[in-house]
Amino acid sequence: MLRRRRLSVQKVKPVILANPTTLDDPLFWADAEGFIFPRVLREMQQAGLLDAPVISVSRSVPEEARQILSGWEVPCVFSDHSFPQHRLLELVRQGSCRGWLLLTPYNYFLEREAVTAAKKLFEDTGASMVDYDGSSLSRFCICDRSAVEELAGYTDFAVTPFVAPKYLTARLGQAAIQGLDLGPDGDVHKFLLQFLYRGGRAIPPQEYVTSYFSGVTAAERFSTASYARHLADYFSIPRLDQFTQSAGRIIQDNETTFLAGQMHLVKRLLPHLPLSREAFLEIGFGPSPVASLLLLNLFRKGYALEPFAPRRDNPDLLRIICENITMPDYIDIRKTMEPERVQRLTTFRATIQQCDIPAQSLDFIFSKTVLEHVMDMEETSRKLYDLLRVGGRMYHIVDFSDHVDTSTIRFDFLEHDRRTWAAINDCTNLWRVNDMVELWERIGFRVRVVERLSRVQPVPHLHPCWQDYDPQDLFCYYAAIIAEK
To answer: Which of 145, 186, 297, 299 has its CA 20 to 30 A from that of 171?
Structure first.
């Protein structure tokens, strides 16, 4: 039975668990007045939202980052531990607080209502953790000492605040964790950020954050309503209230994360589409070929293949979006779902080698987090080359983490050779960015890596087979690659 604890709000200590491996980290976003994050923390303290926060980082971060943090008014604790759960335990053992509010450098938009409700829930229920699954800018959790000690039991990978509830559940069970639900307003805000940005964690750019603090008065800040108004103003969404009322019940469905990611994928593809737009191919459309249906607004015909996931089409959320928010033509579901348009998309339950698509008939091929699962990469790449017309283009987003846990970024495979890792986890092919670039150039493509995200992490025992790789290639977890025939 969970115990009831008597706990004043001052007993919850805010800890920002950061890992700024570069100065591009959100922790170091800056404007004309200087670094934004310490100013926001100071404002949150003045507003009564936080009490004496502390920043925790590893000593292994770059020297320039350490110098910057040492000059901030916010206390910064440098630790010999690399993983956040071990740095947190170190702080817990040095302090006497009953609870810890776990934050990240993304927490520019903490919600006063959520923090207040979470503290009360933590006090009233005696849960080991209270989790608020908000947007990337507002998500946090509160945990007690027992939760911190359990999380520190994970010694092989980083347990960030984003995934701490999942890993604590694995050790203590769901009953030890209380989820905080503030209703459809928070769900809609989270969904729209997923749609407008990358899906999943949905990290907005610095401009979105700075425009909030320049356009919203200090008295209005840090409320759910002010964040919603800012989102509506920033993206010119005239009927956000109506959209929230209509979409709230649907957005609680987990499939909306997939839909948001598909809509954002199409937005990302637009600048890279070829001039000739006769036919395209989507590789691995998942539960529904939403992206392909949207692209039919711009192409005469399309193909989409998915050999594994069961198909589930649900156009309700797209319809509500188009009825309440001004969308560009390529996302207008009223056009996309017309019977004639749907008939121009051919779907396959097959691999690329099994698809009956004429050679040199495609202008564009794309995929999102698919190629890392292809084991016959060279054969597949040659098939794609044959399908493209001269001048045709491919755009592939690849997740290069090892997929042991897709909710976090891990590189456990680096302690093993490829064959040994395949026996442990055969989910990915372990190709790195430069491996793909070299293969495609050898086949005849012109290749550009248009986006590459890396996070160098400590590896207890790096296997010799990986020692010749550049760290930025070896620890790349996400890349977008264009290849032209």
So the answer is: 186
pTM of the model: 0.75
**Alpha-carbon distances, residue 176 vs 125, 169, 240, 379, 405 (angstroms):** 10, 7, 36, 49, 21
Element (H, E) at 119: helix 112-125
The answer to whether 433 touches 410, Cβ cutoff 8 Å, is no
- Give pLDDT tens digits for 126-147: 899 999 988 778 889 999 999 9
- Give the whole-angstrom CA distance, residue 466 versus residue 460: 13
Q: What are the residue ranges of CATH 3.90.550.10 in the chain?
A: 9-185
Per-residue pLDDT of 408-437, as tens digits, reads 788 889 999 989 988 888 889 999 999 999
450: β partners: none
Closest to 284 measured CA to CA, from 299, 305, 300: 305
Beta strands in 299-387 (DSSP E): 301-305, 345-348, 362-368
Residue labelled with tokens 């939403």: 290
Using CA atoms, how far apart are residues 339 and 336, in angstroms rounded to an integer?
Answer: 9
Quick one: tokens of 430? 């372990």
Closest listed residue to residue 189, CA positions, set 127, 144, 241: 241
CATH class of this structure's domain 256-484: alpha beta
Domain 9-185 has CATH 3.90.550.10: yes
